Amino acid sequence: MSSLVSIVFAIGVVRPALSEIRKINVQLDTKGVPYSQSDPCEPLKKLNPSYWQENRFQQCKLVQESSDVLLYHVSIDNEQLQSEHQNLKSNYYTWVINQQLNLGRAGCQTLTTFVDVKAFKNFKTATFMLPKDEEFCDRVKTLVFLDKYPVNSCEFISQYTDNLYHKETIGAYEVSFLQPIPSLEAVKLIEQLNSGDVRCRYNMVFY
Question: Looking at the chain, which runs of residues are DSSP E strands?
Fold first, then answer.
């Protein structure tokens, strides 16, 4: 009898579904502002406090710092994203997350990649994601990023339109550079492009 009760009880148990957690790297340019040793994630969290309070973003850990740039590992509760954002291809997914990290502030102070992207190496090629701009490549090929990294080439490679912010078409552009760029300077390239824009419009994956 007891075994029957145990079987019935086991069948009746409803286990809560586990949230889908995704892990990302986030670079943050502190612009020289010192951070608290007791809470090194505070500079990142204050860009959009509400999403951290709701645990959409969670489990923040500082893993590296270099001059003014901090590198964090952050977990995302994917189920808290809008359904149409949950299964985007990686480049467009990280573009959405980078927008959300910066929602509380003007500008673009972060760069977001998945943790499987090597975060500690130099790079000469990157994919930039931004609202599609027919003149982006012509403009970027004339730039010398940070006054020391000239562009070698730029090519439009793909776009995505459905259900992203403001119903924008987001373009992906592959850019190569004439010399290697240290990985933790990547976020500063994004900031240079975003200069003068009220909201964050860019993200980048380097390889």
Answer: 21-29, 57-66, 69-77, 110-114, 123-131, 144-145, 149-160, 170-181, 203-206
